[in-house]
Q: What sequence folds into this?
């Protein structure tokens, strides 16, 4: 039988801080269990999964549980362990930058293909 899910003591404060950021959405998911991250954050159509650990606890108490570790290993999407609002913001900023670079690369490749096709048509 699964133990009752208990959030880290800094989770409520961290969620409140995140919810103050305009256009950012936070869902508390710590009760889902099976190692699912504590919160899901959505910003600019990008989702972030955060497992929250309390920086005031000793390092051994901040380690992932077996279920959390299994989720992390098997999840193919974004997943980060965070302790502070600064950690969360850093992950979000990096995720947005990566997403924009990825979109820019796709756009650049599309333009390059269109130009290559035009060159082929004119050289025939």
A:
């Amino acid at each position: 039988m699964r133990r009752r899910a208990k959030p880290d003591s800094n989770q409520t404060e961290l969620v409140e801080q995140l919810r103050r950021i305009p256009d950012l959405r936070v869902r508390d998911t710590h009760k889902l269990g099976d190692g699912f991250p504590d919160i899901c954050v959505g910003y600019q159509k990008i989702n972030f999964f955060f497992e929250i650990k309390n920086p005031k606890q000793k390092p051994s108490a901040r380690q992932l549980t077996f279920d959390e570790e299994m989720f992390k290993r098997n999840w193919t999407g974004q997943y980060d362990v965070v302790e502070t609002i600064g950690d969360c913001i850093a992950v979000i900023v990096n995720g947005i930058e990566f997403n924009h670079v990825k979109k820019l690369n796709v756009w650049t490749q599309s333009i390059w293909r269109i130009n290559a096709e035009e060159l082929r048509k004119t050289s025939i």
About this structure: The CA atoms of residues 53 and 60 lie 11 Å apart.
